[in-house]
Design brief:
21% of the residues lie in helices and 11% in strands. It is an alpha+beta fold. It has one domain. The longest helix is centred in the last third of the chain and has 10 residues, at 62-71.
Length: 92
């Protein structure tokens, strides 16, 4: 239904394509995770928080870390969380 609206009203054509891309995966090392349970997340000496947050959260989930790393231009690839680590973790 939405597709027909785009095609009729806006004269846009939609299609699907499969694209293979390289990704980085966060995995747990051989000796297991060594993450502090709490603390603000510090990257390069700066506390990180979203612009929508009044105050930096007390830790990030691994999914949030993967999302942040995906947005770092120097990394240049999507990052996925394969750790299966639950909860929030931060820096000490």
């Amino acid at each position: 239904m939405v597709r027909s609206v785009f095609e009729d009203r806006f004269k846009l054509k939609m299609g699907r394509q499969v694209k293979t891309v390289s990704v980085f995966a966060l995995i747990v090392g051989k000796s297991g995770p060594r993450l502090p349970d709490r603390g603000k997340v510090m990257i390069n000496g700066t506390v990180k928080q979203a612009t929508s947050e009044r105050e930096a959260p007390d830790g990030w989930t691994m999914a949030r870390l993967a999302n942040y790393l995906s947005s770092v231009r120097a990394i240049g690839h999507p990052v996925v969380d394969e750790t299966r680590i639950a909860g929030t973790h931060g820096s000490r």
